[in-house]
Amino acid sequence: MKSKPTGTVKYTLDPANPPRMTPKQEARLLNMTDAEIDYSDIPPQHNKKDWTRPGALIPAENKQQITLRLDADVVSFFRKIGRRYQSRINAALREYVEAQKKAV
């Protein structure tokens, strides 16, 4: 059975070898202001929080040491951001807890 051409072109991108921009494209990007960026393909974000690196969140004496199993990709994501990944995981969990308290 023959398949019908769909007109869809598939590209494979190699993250280690991204395509190069032309000098014209690079100059346009460097001269672009924030107002000129098209965000129309990004879905709206409700209750958007500004995620920052945690500072002094909770005193150490208020913390409780436990053993917790997390998915490897979750731990990897937080570790990639930098040091104090456990504090950032705690901050994300705290945001969840606060959102649940407001919902009840």
TrEMBL record:
Pfam families: BrnA_antitoxin. Residues 1-22 are annotated as: Disordered. This is Uncharacterized protein (DUF4415 family).
